[in-house]
Design goal:
By secondary structure, the protein is an alpha/beta fold. The protein has one domain: Tetrahydropterin Synthase, Chain A. The protein has helices at 60-75, 91-96, 109-120; strands at 6-18, 31-43, 78-82, 100-103, 129-138, 141-146. Strands 4-3-1-2-5-6 form a six-stranded mixed beta sheet. The protein is elongated, with a radius of gyration of 18 Å. The mean pLDDT is 96.
Length: 150
């Protein structure tokens, strides 16, 4: 069989809240979403008959482990806020809530997706290429990164 590269993707769902500091619409208020994160990698399926992963580009379980450790376990049921917002200095946020993160950027869908990209990118080197990340904030609104665009 001709050796060809294949893309494989895994989707993850998690709950997260954010607020867009200084924004001119309702999203300036703390609100949450059920996020859908899709990670796509590309590589050649394993052809070694002695390899237990024969036929796989990457074991979906290994892909899941990376994303769970770097993103889902950290940000599921968390609140993400722009660190330049004055309300992030309120001690009540960190004393009353366990998972409050401040970031040096506006936590839009686009910027959150790029942050997640940077967290997992180091795991995909050599024959495994990270070629796509998509973060859905609502059923009809999402941000995506594609390697071929960059």
């Amino acid at each position: 069989m001709l050796q060809q590269k294949v893309r494989v993707s895994k989707q993850f769902n998690f709950e997260m809240a954010h607020a867009l500091y200084g924004y001119d619409g309702p999203c300036r208020n703390i609100h949450g979403h059920t996020y859908h994160l899709r990670v796509t990698i590309k590589g050649y399926p394993i052809t070694d008959d002695n390899d237990v992963k024969l036929g796989m580009v990457m074991d979906f379980g290994n892909l899941k482990k990376v994303v769970m450790e770097e993103i889902i376990s950290v940000y599921d049921h968390a609140l993400v806020l722009n660190d330049s917002a004055p309300y992030v200095k309120n001690e009540l946020l960190t004393t009353e809530f366990e998972k409050v993160f401040t970031v040096p950027f506006q936590p839009t869908c686009e910027n959150l997706m790029l942050m997640f990209l940077e967290k997992i990118r180091p795991y995909f080197t050599g024959d495994l290429e990270l070629v796509g990340v998509e973060l859905r904030e609502t059923p009809t609104s999402y941000a995506e990164w594609r390697k071929e665009d960059n």
